[in-house]
Write a structure and sequence with these properties.
It is built from seven helices and 38 strands. By secondary structure, the protein is mainly β. It has one domain: Maltoporin, Chain A (Beta Barrel). The longest helix is centred in the first third of the chain and has 10 residues.
Length: about 725
């Protein structure tokens, strides 16, 4: 578990840092070896320095501030934490932060979401270096399509963030920040992760080129991973998808002078994944298949200019483009074994009208999703005030077609375009040596709404002493009625696709979050103990909810997205860090969130087939009240690092549409153990050998759905079974 306390030193708040591109390069590299209030620096000797917190962060206020001074609490996961736990992608790295939880939502295709502040994935916004480029379609499988090799650190700000980032930032923002090197070099890694005797083979590489004066730099990064499908319960249907993924990209910058810098980056992902059964056959001849082939491109171009010591600005353009070919469905419980007495070859003939294969033959899809984003920010400093303001414009379109197995268009199931124009302003006001105040507001005009949305924010930080800092804030967020990622992941009940539609007149969802917290360090000169605690309440109005399953005139299944009366999420998080000795560190944290609707919502209603069974609940589904993380790290010498990690997931409510039951699950305790051996070569190359076991006691769901008629949405808890991993990494 990383250390996530943004607290010390707790002395005089410092004004926002000046946007000097050359100095920024140096500060970003410091973030590789510096974290917040627990282990913050490891010089390679096994000695940890808890007094250094000179990480520069940007997410909370969109201005560069030292982590210790930022008025809005920011949690940071650094690259060393990601590498120690051998996380392959963002979805695995996110699980190392207390209060974040990655939940699997499909037994067939393993789509997942990051839950933040007790709310689901649709309520938080994922940023790439400050830019919201995870599009609607990109959010379906995008968490696993962001390689860890591209991430230098992750910054998390919890609480409504629409005052700075616009629609979607209801629960907060998660900012993925790439590495910006200061020297020539690179690294290469090869590894294997074996789960249920099936290996995941992966490798990544990075090369950096930097001119001696630091004015020009270019980084090339690539990662590839591959694995076969895995069947946990032996029913012939996969729980882990067959997957083949390649990612490549670059990041470059050129400083015209000490005051002007041009930055560019680009990333391309190609992924094929398939879950279900009969992998040796076309998808339409499987009993169940969820299959995706995705091409995902994203990039940006940004200009930073320091006009004077008191004024600077940045202008940027970003884009994302996704093309996806998909299949959701299958034959259902049709017998496919020729030796079975009930085998009927006509059922597998797509040319016969009314056969199962004739239906599944037309369950393919083709989706395109381009996104364009224009961003501007102006920073003005006047005495105790640091004022930031700007304009942002986002335009996105989604075209979704239902196609046959030979690529013919059967129907256009979606053709939507929406845009958002936002104007924001913020004042970071240093009231005194001990008090910082942040006042911010934003106005958004969404193409899906008649009226503009006003989103204010206020935050206050008070350094009560050199050991104790208090923070309080009220923030707002909203979601406009657009097409959402869950609409483009088609859930299947058996082999029947279930689509989601927005009801007529769907209004925006609004949220207000109040937060109160403290950060404490034992002795500022020798802080062996650190502790933080944060309490929050989020009130949501006109909450989006999905109706029970309904049948259309043609027999197809769908759910309606509607506005409910509202809901409330009450939460508490706390983290503690203990530096027991120079070589031993313990960090631990727990989070409690109670997520409930104001009125009970009907989640299942079958008045015909099951004897008038209706299920209603006020609780959010798949949202545990309690979660927790702990990690013990031991670094006996500069040659060894070892850890034991624990992840706790408390009971949650999960709906099974097949059994018509709302089940309360058991708790899960996932233990990971691992170690790294470091070799320092005389030729300047450093070698790392890492190995370990994930989910040591194989904690996972025991009542998985089986067979061709399974409810693919009835999946919860730890995403992976016990696995053994090892990797070799060389840095030069």
């Amino acid at each position: 578990m990383p250390t996530v306390i943004a607290c010390a030193p707790l002395g005089r708040p410092r004004p926002p840092a000046r946007r000097d591109p050359l100095r920024l390069s140096l500060l970003l590299i410091l973030a590789n070896s510096v974290s917040h209030a627990g282990v913050v620096d490891d010089d390679g000797s096994g000695t940890v320095d808890l007094t250094r917190v000179d990480v520069t962060v940007t997410t909370a206020t969109r201005t560069e501030r030292l982590l210790a001074d930022v008025p809005v609490r920011t949690e940071v996961l650094r690259r060393q934490d990601i590498e120690l736990r051998a996380a392959l992608d963002f979805s695995q790295a996110a699980e190392l932060i207390n209060g974040l939880r990655v939940e699997s939502n499909c037994q067939n295709c393993n789509t997942s979401e990051v839950q933040l502040l007790g709310l689901g994935g649709a309520y938080n916004q994922i940023l790439f270096d400050g830019t919201p480029l995870l599009s609607t379609l990109g959010g379906v499988y995008g968490l696993e399509q962001i390689p860890a090799a591209f991430i230098n650190r992750i910054e998390v700000v919890k609480g409504g963030g629409s005052s700075l980032y616009g629609p979607g930032a209801v629960a907060g923002v998660i900012n993925l920040i790439p590495e910006q090197p200061t020297r020539n070099g690179g690294r290469l890694q090869l590894g294997v992760d074996v789960q249920k005797s099936e290996p995941v083979l992966y490798g990544d590489a990075r090369g950096d080129f930097v001119l001696d004066d630091g004015r020009l730099g270019l980084s090339m990064v690539a990662q590839a991973a591959r694995n076969d499908a895995i069947d946990y319960n032996g029913d012939g249907f996969s729980e882990i998808t067959q997957k083949d993924q390649q990612v490549a990209g670059f990041q470059g910058w050129y400083a015209l002078n000490d005051r002007a810098t041009l930055r560019a980056n680009y990333q391309y992902t190609h992924e094929q994944r398939r879950g279900g059964n009969r992998f040796d056959q076309p998808e339409f001849l499987a009993n169940i298949a969820e299959s995706l082939e995705t091409d995902y491109q994203r990039g940006s171009l940004r200009w930073d200019h320091i006009v004077s010591d008191d004024f600077d600005y940045s202008l940027g353009y970003s884009f994302a483009y996704i093309k996806r070919d998909s299949f959701y469905g299958g034959l259902g419980d049709v017998v496919t074994d020729p030796n079975d007495p009930y085998y009927d070859p006509d059922a597998l003939d797509p040319t016969l009208p009314g056969s199962a294969a004739s239906v599944s033959f037309n369950q393919y899809g083709h989706t395109t999703n381009p996104l364009h984003y224009i961003d501007s920010q102006f920073n003005l400093r006047r005495g105790a005030h640091a004022i930031a303001f700007g304009l942002q414009y986002k335009r996105e379109s989604i075209t979704d077609e239902n196609r046959s197995a030979i690529g013919e268009t059967v129907a256009v199931t979606g053709d939507d375009r929406f845009s958002n124009l936002g104007v924001y302003a913020q004042d970071e006001w240093t009231l005194s040596d001990a008090v910082d105040l942040v006042l911010g507001a934003r106005v958004d005009k969404s193409s899906t709404l008649d009226d503009p949305i006003f989103s204010p924010r206020v935050a206050l930080a008070f350094a009560a002493s050199d050991r104790l800092k208090l923070r309080a804030g009220i923030s707002t967020g909203f979601r406009a009625p657009e097409v959402f990622s869950e609409d483009l992941h088609v859930v299947t009940l058996g082999a029947e696709p279930i689509r989601i539609r927005n009801t007529e007149g769907l209004g925006e969802e609004r949220a207000v979050t109040g937060m109160l917290g403290l950060d404490w360090r034992s002795d500022p000169a020798d802080p062996r103990w650190t502790w933080d605690a944060t309490a929050s309440v989020t009130e949501l109005r006109d909450t989006f909810v999905l109706s029970e399953l309904r049948s259309d005139d043609d027999g197809s299944l769908f759910q309606l997205r509607e506005n409910s009366s509202g809901s409330r999420v009450t939460g508490f998080e706390t983290n503690v860090g203990w530096q027991a000795m120079e070589t031993v560190r313990l960090t631990a944290g727990v989070a409690w969130y109670r997520s409930r609707y104001d009125e009970a919502q009907i989640v299942f209603d079958d008045t015909e087939d099951r004897g008038h069974v209706t299920i209603a609940t006020r609780d959010y589904l798949k949202a545990p009240d309690w979660t927790g993380l702990a990690q013990l790290t031991w670094s006996p010498t500069d040659a060894w690092d070892a850890f034991v990690g624990l992840k706790y997931t408390g009971p949650l409510q999960a709906l099974n549409n097949n059994t018509a039951r709302l089940n309360r699950t058991l708790a899960f305790y996932v233990v990971d153990v691992g170690a790294s051996r470091h070799f320092h070569g005389a030729d300047g190359r450093d070698w790392d050998l890492s190995f370990g076991v994930r989910n040591l006691f194989d904690e996972r769901q025991q009542d998985l759905e089986i067979g061709a008629n399974r409810d693919s949405d009835y999946v919860y808890g730890p995403r992976f079974a016990r696995s053994l991993y090892t990797s070799v990494r060389v840095a030069f």
